Structures
1.
Amino acid sequence: PASPGAEGGLARLVADAYRNALRTDLALVGAAELQGELPAGPLTAAQVEGAVAPSSLLTISLTGAEVRELVENLLLSPEPCCGVSGILVEFDPRGREFDRVRRARLVTGDDLDRKRSYTIALSEALLGPDSTFSLGAGDCRAGKGCRTPGQLSRWTVTRSERGTAEVLREYLRRLPQPVAPPTDRRIVPRR
């Protein structure tokens, strides 16, 4: 079975599905989007649809520096809020707020380049009122918060006609059967 939770197998599986479907460099899925687990064995469409909150998908273009800020924002709570795909993050859990990331590496093995542009797939479920993307807040400092709000208008955003359950269903169909959720750790504490 694929269990929910930001670091559960379902989060990694759904993030992989988003990244694959939208052909992006990275993907992000919030733990709140995961509504249940996917049981082992053959799945019905209803089981797949029940695993993720219905939402449209977006592609956002960010610089590597903005991706790093996004990852720092993911690490603000004791447990990461989101599952990721396309990136391996090593962080110091005892580090200062907004300075915990020690290394961010793409699945290609390359380090995140602060100046390069990257595309990220995510669902509209991660957005707040007025299309704010709080994880995209920038210019953040410990004890002071972030000076630049995560407004979508800051970036190039492409809205997809495809929804979360549709993308997950298609991805599961293409994987070798029986499907096993990814077990690799993508957000790893290091000192």
2.
Amino acid sequence: RDEIRDWSSDVCSSDLATLATPTVLRAQTFTADTLGAATETPRNTSSFQMIDWRDHFSTLGKATIIADTVSRALHYWDATGTDYRLYPTSVPMTDELTRRGYTEIVRKKVAPSWTPTANMRRRDPSLPIRVEGGDPINPLGTHGMYLDWPAYLVHGTADTRKIGRRSSSGCIGLYNEQIAEIGRASCRERV
């Protein structure tokens, strides 16, 4: 079997990861006894807690990513489901910018260049036409994984203040070290 051990290939044809953005909140209800209150209060308990991939997929068979935009976390499983990783993320600024559903990673790039979309430039005309990969002002950071949805990526960021916040125009952002780690892990074996 051929193995891809690093980001040297732009196309990750050996193990295209599946990405899902769940639209259902996981909530836990606490009773008055546990809260010392007179009413029941729903609490979001999905933040930085392990979730079960079976809630979203019937089988794995390839690396799987779930980007939870509510808890601002990215969940990763390898093809066997034995390697589970959890990362904090930046998420889209608004629900209108958030794409939900199932997609695949179709290309990987070290030092991706960034070209703002027409909508981004309408919202902020001061944006540059293009920023080359490796430029410190490039919002895509050191690595990018392109989805089969045009203009949507899972990428790094040099601006670590964005992680854990609604700060993107649709993409899912990670610390640079973590996007590099996921890229290496999701292309280790042919599927």
